[in-house]
Amino acid sequence: MDRFIFLTFDGLSRGAVYAAFALSLVLIWRAARIVNFAQGAMAVATAYAGYSVATATGSYWLGFAVALVGGLLLGAGVERVVMRFVDHSSPLNGVVVALGLVLVIQAVLGMIYGNEFRPAGAPFSRDAFVVGGVALLSRFDLWVFAAVIAVVALLVLLFTRTAVGLRMRAAAFAPDVSRLLGVNVGGMLTLGWALAAAVGSLAGMLVIPTELGLHPNAMDIVFVSAFTAAVVGGLDSAIGAVVGGVIVGLLLSYVSGYLGATVAPIAVLVLLLVVLLGRPGGLFGSVKARAA
Amino acid sequence: MTDLRERAPAKVPTEKGKNALSLYRHLALMLLGAVVILALSYALPPFRNYQLATVGAYLCVTAGLTVLTGLNGQLSLGHGALMAVGAYTLAMTQNKLAGQGQWTLLVAVLAAIVVTTAVGAVVGLAAARLRGPYLAGLTLAVAVVVPAIASTFDTTFNSDQGLSVSVDPPPLALGYDFPYERWQAWLAWAGALVTLLFLANLVRSRFGRNLTAVRDDEAAARLAGINVARTQVMAFVVSAACAGLGGALIAVLSQSVSPGAFPLTLSLFLLMAIVIGGLGSLAGALWGAVLLVVLPATTHSLTDSFDVSAAVAQRLEGNLPLAIFGVVLIVVMLAFPGGIASLKKFLPNAKKLLPKRKA
């Protein structure tokens, strides 16, 4: 029972990270109808930048800020320089271009930093508090929860309470009408990519200090988990992404706790298969979107 | 109506005649290819022969993948994993039968194809219900899961170390000093040429036309009486069989299999190879396979010529091909979404434009 409780809290903490990463995928999907397969590589790139700054200045939080700002810039840059020019006649094209980006980003990181694992420090202790003999949560887990909840709250506020958020939703929902009404549709698209990439960078900064470590390919498996989370929730739904993230986090935690860490990726694949075949719309999405 | 029915039988022989003609043409091309490879294998030094063999092994996979992605519109990022299935099956079968003669290799290769086909059928059944990014995501998950499976069932697959493959030396009938690399090139290209012949005939058959019909418009294909789901699953199965053969050949060439030989980047490389060659073109698959071998080798010798420290050279060597592949992938996709094959279409158009302007 103690173990179960520990694994549940661990799963919630992992789930929060997957939720944030899935959210970044959903943001881009809603804005541009593209699943950004380069999101993982982009997050790793900003994490490298962040940790370089942190090591150079000695301040983790400066590095953290650099990673988030780097995410904003990288997201905007990718949209302006590459994604804007993708021919959307086939949904394959966007995916292939994103995969090209993955290769380029990982290669550049490998050239600059080398392909070996680098240790990545956490800003808070990862030792769990023990309550009544049961190990529950670490300070780092609390930080993860706080960060993810803050981001979700900010996004909700942005999209529901501000004029910019309304314009972004309008630009995604009906680009032509929005343009006629004076919305800068292209600018909103860039902003969407920038925001999504920044959220992805945050998820990267939260997940890399755990078991992953810094490596050009570190986020491959995280991407797959987060993609699964987004699909579980239905790619269109932000709430779905959060719920899906928690489900995937719990599943991964239980599976690696009871069956061994190596089984975890297989469990993700099975979950993805089951959801795609059994409930093609995800928990919160519409089935129609799946055929698009 | 009766008029049409009377006419129909008359049309069938010509269609058959056409098919027979293209079969002869493909056979002739295959023979020509065999002669070229034979000549090359005698002309090239051992290491080049090994590279030639690697091209042959990759060609099996890229040819199968280009049929799936180019002609049927299904994007698979899992073909590296399917290669791993073929490679591991070959390793296990071959090690069990080792030392009983050359025939064991044929049995092991066939076993690899059968097992990979079965795995491909399972993935294909799921894939047929998915489109675009969903299919890409699922196959990506398949590719990422390979090392996990190798470590989870480590008594069978020996986790990260992988298995070694005992391959018999070339038959004695070829002579005592017959170079091993030449034998490898023969083996790999035998597989590649058979694959090409099979696929070339397949894409010109009714099945091949069904593939493109399903890709271009599913509703129209269904109206024309094509079973869309079955066509998609069959496309995946055919493509998986080719990937299994390619993976088995890679295992024979390197005489070992390990998860590290089939990373996600391998699947991305394969995708790049067929995109550059022009999606759906078998000739493009050949150029792609050549590029997969030549480009890393070229960057290797290029970084050797740079005057940099060993550590920097090592980083460049491993990553420069990745960067080049990535950039090429993006540029081709943005500039020529139809691949290089679509350039042909531009040429006559340009010619048509010129006289128009004069007039």
3D structure, described in words:
The complex is a heterodimer of chains A (292) and B (359). Chain A starts with a helix and ends with a helix. In chain A, a hairpin with a 2-residue loop joins strand 1 (128-131) and strand 2 (134-138). Chain A has 292 residues and is mainly α. Chain A has helices spanning 2-32, 39-57, 60-81, 91-113, 139-161, 163-173, 175-180, 185-212, 220-233, 238-258, 264-278, 287-291, and strands at 128-131, 134-138. Chain A has twelve helices and two strands; from the N terminus they run ααααββαααααααα. Chain A has one domain (2-218). Chain B has 359 residues and is an all-alpha fold. Chain B has 14 helices and two strands. In chain B, strands 1-2 form a two-stranded antiparallel sheet. In chain B, helix 2 runs parallel beside helix 7 (180-203), helix 2 (46-71) packs across helix 11 (264-277) and helix 12 (282-305) runs antiparallel to helix 13 (310-335). The longest helix of chain B has 42 residues, at 2-43. Chain B is globular and about 60 Å long. The relative contact order of chain B is 0.16. Mean pLDDT of chain B is 82; it is low at 1-13 and 348-359. The chains are: A mainly alpha (292), B mainly alpha (359). Chains A and B meet through helix 4, helix 9 and helix 11 of A and helix 5, helix 11 and helix 13 of B.
Strand order of the largest sheet of chain B: 1-2
CATH class of the domain at 17-263 in chain B: Mainly Alpha
Write down the Rg of chain B: 22 Å
Number of helices of chain B: 14
Shape of chain A: globular
How confident is the prediction overall: mean pLDDT of chain A?
A: 86
What is the CATH-assigned architecture of the domain at 17-263 in chain B? Orthogonal Bundle
Radius of gyration of chain A, in Å, reads: 19 Å
Of all chain pairs, the largest interface belongs to: A-B, 55 and 48 residues
